[in-house]
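sorry for the late reply, my laptop died twice this morning and i had to redo everyting from scratch. anyway the thing you sent over, i finally got around to it. pasting the sequence first so we're on the same page, its 217 residues, then the predicted structure underneath. double check i copied it right bc i was rushing
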Amino acid sequence: MTTVALVEDDMGVRRSLRSLLASEPGLACTCSCATGEEAVRKIPDAGVDVVVMDIKLPGMSGIECARRLKERCPDVAILMLTVYDETDLIFAALRAGAGGYLLKRAATTELVHAIKDVLDGGAPMTAPVARRVVDYLHETPELPGPRRPAAVQAAGADRLTDRELEILEHLSRGYSNREIADTFGISVATVRSHLRNIYAKLHVRSRTQAALKYRGG
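ok and here's the structure:
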């Protein structure tokens, strides 16, 4: 059973999301919060797998809430679910540790798929949001082979091994954990182990943060 926490100030939206999760086999909403402050108090003790969070919350913003939750619960996956698709907000959320970014106009089936995807190492995003991220990442040229971009060196990550650099390069191009594993003939568990080492050395908390830092974002 995948456990989910909701952070949404609109009571009607919260109820709708709870009903959606309750109707989906394998998913359960075990924590529901109306503010970022409440989320920071309750979620660390709730032991949930995924947090679905709005950005514009009263008081503490969803971005700040995401940052604090990742500090206390580095393994929790965070999905932003919001009406806002401004580029600055998208990248601020991703840098804060969000693993995915969906617009509220997305279909409910897309949210269910995104919850499962982010737990499998994916970075689910509504199509317009994904396009902006891809455009940003493509602003820098392809990096053939295990090179050490200036942004990575500046981050103090010169201790990355060649294999870690290869995995980070593929991650930054949008490869999933399974695709990376197939590329290098290793298991998904080994990929996850490499990613944990990469995150620690880059001082980041998510694959999107790692990709942004690698590309100089």
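Confidence is low (pLDDT under 50) at residues 141-148.
thats about all i looked at so far, will dig more tmrw
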